[in-house]
Amino acid sequence: MNVKEMMELMEAKELKEVKELKDLVLQQGSNLLGVQSSLLEIEKNMGKKDNKDELELKMIELEEKTLLLEKEVKNKQRDPEELRMIRQVILKIIEEKFADISRSTETKIQQIKNENSKEFASLKQIIQQKDELISSLQETIEKNYEEMLTLRQNINQANMKTNGIIQSIGMKLNEVDQDFGQKIQGLDQAMRKTDNKCKDLEDKIAKFDINGSDQLIKIEEFGKTLQNLIDEKAKEREEKKLQHLQLLSIQTDFNKKVGDLRNEFFNLHHDQVEKIKKVDVSNVAIKNLVDSIKVELKFLNSSTFKKGSFVNIDNEWKVTTKFPCCGTKCVNTESPYGTCKSRNGFIQLTTDGTIRYIKCAEGKVNKFPLITAANQFKRPVNCNVFSLFYFELKLKLEEEFTSDQKSLAFGLDNNSDTVKMWPLSSIIHYHMQNENIPQSFKLESFILSADDVVGCCLVYPPSRVENKMPYVFYTQNGKQICKAIVLEGNNNYYQPFIQVTGYAVETNFGQNLEAKPFSYDISKHLVAEEFYEFY
């Protein structure tokens, strides 16, 4: 179909060298068929990690063939209008290859919106559940506080009751002491009276005339009376001793009861104190839990959580030998400042880190090298905020290159998954190792201009946030140019890379933002809420 169109175009021209032009078009048609067959082979083999290097080499070979073909056309000095029409046909073929992929993005975008709405609904439900938990904990605290007040009232009542019992026992002891004292005093008075009577009798005996019979009778009677008094006094002493023993028994019982009451009161008081301590500990634990939940909710709703934090890493570019300048690999990591000895077009690193591209000599090829960062972007461990890794590229077209001789791709790679942007084609490409078919989408409104600044940002979620995946987005001149791309594969680390032809590139890894700030204000980036869906 394409060859026929070109033949019709060529036949419409009435030029002198018709035969030579036909031969040239036929040669271009065969090359285009070779390009188409190579594209079909690439589509079949893309996604297989073992063929990844081979596919990229084929792409480079195709690009070299195209460049050589264009040079040949220019050497023939054909009509520019004819060359323009031929390029339009070639571009039409390329655009048809990506048309089907572009049409499928709208439905996938809608699916992403639906998934995001489910995530926001889930987050609202979690916050509502935590609010309900806080209310329940507050009710528990109030209930425990009421129980603590009741326990304290019971302790006060027990204290009052114990004090009343002790006072009652004390009053009874005072009464016993008073009664016992009165009885002792009565016995003492009776004994003193008896003693007085004995003294009187002794006085009478001394004065009594023992020779009279009447007196003898009186003496006998007096002896009996005296004996009775002595017996009575002995009886009173026994009673006094018995009362004293009873008083000691009462005192012992009282002391025992007081000791029992004190032990009972101490045990009751100890139990109540332990219960109060447990309630206090429970209240403290509940309060700490409530405070922790409040802090977590405040953190989830805070702008700091949504903004994240930029991770500053000291970095520089390293020239790999994956796509070398020539067979001798003369430009490499150990020697990045030289030029290709075979005079192929290749990059050159300057001492300030700028990437220059040295154009090839006549009859040679401009290579498409791979340059990687020295240090990787690694997932942070035990991090409480979103972590942002970012780098920017300031582009400048080399003077000796035309617009159709330049190429550019940059992004992130970890030897299994790759996400890259082709700014000149307005295409973002995402390839996971476990997927056979890589995914791509086209940025309809994106146009790369001279002296543009483009950037790539990798965002890792906090360690404690579940169901969140890292994602990537791209920027142009300080603005985000696409939705975020969720990284679902092996995502513990990524390595920045760039492939370039025809551009001088100045890189900013953010090592000194005060002296050299980013074009994109990374501090104002909010966590992405819209994502592309590939699968």
UniProtKB/TrEMBL annotation:
The keyword Coiled coil applies. Residues 45-79, 184-239 form a coiled coil. It comes from the Eukaryota. Keywords: Coiled coil. Gene3D superfamilies: 2.60.120.920. The keyword Coiled coil applies. This is Uncharacterized protein. It comes from Meloidogyne enterolobii (Root-knot nematode worm).
